[in-house]
Amino acid sequence: MKRLLLFAMMCVSMSFVFAQKKGDKVVKVTSSEIRWWGYKIVKTVPTTHSGTVKLKSGKFTFDKTVLVDGEFVIDMKSLMAGDVSNQDEDMVKLTNDLKSTNFFEVKKFPLAKFHLTKIIPLANSEYNSTVYGDVTIKGVRKTITFPANVYITQFTVVIESAKFSLNRRDFKVFYQSSLKDYFIKNEMDIQFKISTAVLDNENRTPVKKKK
């Protein structure tokens, strides 16, 4: 009898869990842009490097119409210094160096991840929210926060972050044995824009679909 009762309770619990999951709605990111900046100790325009990296996949999970969290996977193999129109010899060399064991070890760690855990509204600020989450780079996970403009309309999400800093040493992104590392600032800046819909570039709002 006890076994029968225990089995019945397990079935009820499982049904409750699956019912919750069934009610979740997952919305994929369809538009994204991620930029990065790195600096020498003497921070000037000539000593500043910048570039891009691409989002491999991204999604937001909703419970009814309430945003629960977000999961984002970054393709580190797409890491690039400069831009497509400025791939001279120096930029190609820097890109290869960043992907090597000197920095991001892309062959060993081809993916980075960001798990968005919560969004707290801000008042009277340049940005309307603070975003909380966990970022994983080279297998190291750190909890971070940053300001952003966040717009949520039912199942449409737009997030435009401020430029925020990560400490590269927290993620073991540095020359292992070279004096070169002492000339590089520990802060690396990130800024991104992601959306579950195609954006109007002028107003940064989702483009309405034509009926």
UniProtKB/TrEMBL annotation:
Pfam families (UniProt xref): YceI
Domain Lipid/polyisoprenoid-binding YceI-like: 24-199
Coiled-coil annotated residue ranges, if any: none
Stretch forming the signal peptide: 1-19
Keyword terms, alphabetized: Signal
Entries under PANTHER family matching the protein: PROTEIN YCEI
Protein known as: Polyisoprenoid-binding protein YceI
Naturally occurring in which organism (per UniProt): Chryseobacterium arachidis
Taxonomic lineage from the root: Bacteria, Pseudomonadati, Bacteroidota, Flavobacteriia, Flavobacteriales
